[in-house]
UniProtKB/TrEMBL annotation:
Catalytic activity, EC: 2.4.1.-
Signal peptide feature range: 1-22
InterPro entries: Glyco_trans_8, Glycosyltrans_8_dom-fam, Nucleotide-diphossugar_trans
Taxonomic path: Eukaryota, Viridiplantae, Streptophyta, Embryophyta, Tracheophyta
GO molecular function: glycosyltransferase activity
Keyword Repeat: no
UniProt pathway annotation: Glycan metabolism; pectin biosynthesis
Main location: membrane
Topological type in the membrane: Single-pass type II membrane protein
Family of the protein in this entry: Belongs to the glycosyltransferase 8 family.
Organism listed in the record: Raphanus sativus
GO BP term, pick one: cell wall organization
Protein name: Hexosyltransferase
A Pfam cross-reference name: Glyco_transf_8
Amino acid sequence: MSQHLLLILLSLLFILLNPISASPIIQKFKEAPQFYNSADCPVLDPGDDDNDVAAKKPIFCSRRAVHVAMTLDSAYIRGSVAAVLSVLQHSSCPENIVFHFVASASADASSLRSTVSASFPYLDFAVYVFNVSSVSRLISSSIRSALDCPLNYARSYLADLLPPCVRRVVYLDSDLILVDDIAKLAATDLGRDSVLAAPEYCNANFTSYFTSAFWSNPTLSLTFADRKACYFNTGVMVIDLSRWREGAYTARIEEWMAMQKRIRIYQLGSLPPFLLVFAGLIKPVNHRWNQHGLGGDNFRGLCRDLHPGPVSLLHWSGKGKPWARLDAGRPCPLDALWSPYDLLQTPFALDS
């Protein structure tokens, strides 16, 4: 028996005797410095809800706190940790920020929670388990398999997952960093009836987000007839959860996903249902709050430049992620702006 074949057989035996866990090994991260409130930060009220959440941790129901929602999983944990650090570092009142993390029921929520606590031992946060079975049956395949992950759809269920006392939340993807105070974004005026706010991009070809089957259908094509529908990126949104709950918007999104199962009306994951429900009805936010597309397109992930204008948030939406390109030794120029927020503890890192 050749040495090569023997090694293969020994490897197979090792795998059989030591089955690989369903969850990838969680990476280890350095502890971030603690950030403190400035002198003029508001004193947080405990909220007016008489419930267990407010009793245990009043900040979780405070209307003066900045509530941030993100998903959390082992594949994107490195990006999530960097995003949290960027939020805290550029906040004038970091102690007034609460993070609401959503993890899949199949994930090791305990390990994810420990990872966040180790890097941010002072952080006010909670991890909510998202049972993906309800949405998995509604997901249709898209142009990139990563977009089909059920956790991508968690943003549609925040009103159900977060405590009822949380009335407003800033939703952030894990592949971004802030370079400005998130309180400015959280304070966006939603007016009298808007449910969410986000930067709009009315120069984008809106029709391309839906198939010919959608536009050729006499009923479906009238969906946007009474509104000026523009593309917006769902990776950065300010959401009024109270209005969302009152309007049963999760059910509205699910209705379009069920329609997609019968007639293929779009190609791009969790974004089109949001556009179908909200495009033309959102409160526009300055483009500086989502310099998106830095991950390139959904196929090749090529390098891209910033859009013209000021920058408050950089978003590596698209196929290419800065940590992957840096590890591969093929970073894009703008990936250097993400690198300072990377807390990954490498085996050869020297303590400063």
